[in-house]
């Protein structure tokens, strides 16, 4: 019989509005069971009108910590006493915990999840770090630009339908990050070491992502953070012409690791068993 790890009954969960669709309970539930931890991970719906009070008085919830999903990431960050570098930079937190002194701490782990996925699925992917191309300029793009800057990419080029949003991110991250309008993409593809789609295009039910990869170097890594479908048309097209590709599922799984470690004291692994579990769930529900 597996020896149970001694731990007080610790409660964590995912907070947001809505939360019914969240796969986080599946991921954390898997890790709790795997490590024999007597804790819980719940879905906690926080209505928009209650968000300031909920995060502002987090200790009253009885939770050790939580994940935060839309639309509360900014409200949660504002309520924190301490933020990690990414959350500070983004003004948004997706992982909260109470430290030993009762201070509310916040992190933004989307960028860490993005890096963890590539490190695991495409080792040494960032040995070539001259030029990264980021499609999209939403919340996920901001986290990914932060992540790429942390890996010392010489230049990060953001292309977005709404140029102003790309420009805002470029202004925030400094001189190695550049904003472009979508129609300039062809001019830059030939220099790319990494191409990442962070738009919602190509997702089931959304418009297709229409990009001509003819000029992309064969050595470039292509990744898509959309994971429904798992193999997007972008990834299919890239693999067919011989580029290395990584799908977006691992980002979802890796971004959950730091929270679990903070709440339950064990650093969990992203392995094939977990990936299969979430993929099966997606197949059943989508
Ligand atoms: P967001 O903040 O709403 O940003 C959406 C982005 O997609 C914006 O750049 C937007 O351009 C672009 N876009 C949407 N519709 C478009 C269209 N018809 N034509 C051109 N551009 C369009 O969303 P997000 O939070 O960044 O998430 C983006 C995607 O990443 C979603 O599909 C989400 O599920 C996925 N995601 C995956 C993970 C993961 O763990 N794998 C994590 C986070 C997000 P405009 O600025 O011009 O509107």
Characterize the structure shown:
Strand 7, helix 6 and strand 8 form a beta-alpha-beta unit. It is built from 12 helices and 12 strands. It is of the alpha/beta class and 286 residues long. The two termini are 37 Å apart. The strands form 2 sheets. The chain has a 6-stranded mixed β-sheet, sandwiched between helices. It has a 6-stranded parallel β-sheet with strand order 9-8-7-10-11-12, sandwiched between helices. Helix 5 crosses helix 6. It binds NADP nicotinamide-adenine-dinucleotide phosphate. The site of NADP nicotinamide-adenine-dinucleotide phosphate has 25 residues, from helix 5, helix 6 and helix 10.
Descriptive tags:
286 residues, alpha/beta, six-stranded mixed beta sheet, six-stranded parallel beta sheet, 12 helices, 37% helix, disordered N terminus, binds NADP nicotinamide-adenine-dinucleotide phosphate
Spatial order of the strands in the main sheet? 2-1-3-5-6-4
Give the end-to-end Cα distance, rounded to a whole number of Å. 37 Å
Poorly predicted regions are 1-7
Individual helix count:
12
Derived from helix and strand composition plus strand pairing, the structural class reads alpha/beta
Provide a brief overview of the structure.
This protein is of the alpha/beta class. It is 37% helix and 19% strand.
Layout of SSEs?
Blueprint: E1 11-16, H1 24-34, E2 40-45, H2 51-56, E3 65-68, H3 73-79, E4 82-83, H4 85-90, E5 95-98, E6 104-107, H5 110-121, E7 131-135, H6 139-150, E8 155-160, H7 163-173, E9 177-181, H8 185-189, E10 194-197, E11 221-224, H9 233-240, E12 244-246, H10 249-254, H11 257-264, H12 272-285
Parallel strand pairs: 1-2, 1-3, 4-6, 7-8, 7-10, 8-9, 10-11, 11-12
Antiparallel strand pairs: 3-5, 5-6
Helix pairs in contact: 5-6
The structure holds NADP nicotinamide-adenine-dinucleotide phosphate.
């Amino acid at each position: 019989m597996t020896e149970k790890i001694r731990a007080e009954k610790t409660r964590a969960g995912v907070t947001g509005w809505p939360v019914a669709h969240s796969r986080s309970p599946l991921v954390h539930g898997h890790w709790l069971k795997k490590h024999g931890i007597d804790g819980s991970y719940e879905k906690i719906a926080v209505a928009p009108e209650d968000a300031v009070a909920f995060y502002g008085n987090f200790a009253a919830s009885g939770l050790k910590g939580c994940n935060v999903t839309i639309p509360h990431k900014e409200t949660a960050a504002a309520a924190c006493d301490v933020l990690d570098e990414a959350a500070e930079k983004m003004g948004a937190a997706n992982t909260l915990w109470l430290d030993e002194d009762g201070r509310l701490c916040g992190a933004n782990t989307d960028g860490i999840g993005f890096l963890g996925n590539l490190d695991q699925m495409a080792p040494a992917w960032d040995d070539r770090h001259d030029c990264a191309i980021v499609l999209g300029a939403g919340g996920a793009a901001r986290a990914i630009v932060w992540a790429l800057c942390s890996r010392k990419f010489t230049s990060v080029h953001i292309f977005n339908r709404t140029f102003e949003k790309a420009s805002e991110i470029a202004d925030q991250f400094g001189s190695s990050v550049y904003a472009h309008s979508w129609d300039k993409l062809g001019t830059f593809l030939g220099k790319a070491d990494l191409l990442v789609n962070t738009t919602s295009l190509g997702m089931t039910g959304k418009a297709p992502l229409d990009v001509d990869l003819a000029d992309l170097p064969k050595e470039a890594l292509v990744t898509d953070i959309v994971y429904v479908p798992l193999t997007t048309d972008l990834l299919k097209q890239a693999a067919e012409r011989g580029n290395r590709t990584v799908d977006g599922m691992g980002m979802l799984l890796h971004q959950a690791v730091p929270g679990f470690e903070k709440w339950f004291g064990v650093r969990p692994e992203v392995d094939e068993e977990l990936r299969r579990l979430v993929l099966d769930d997606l197949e059943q529900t989508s």
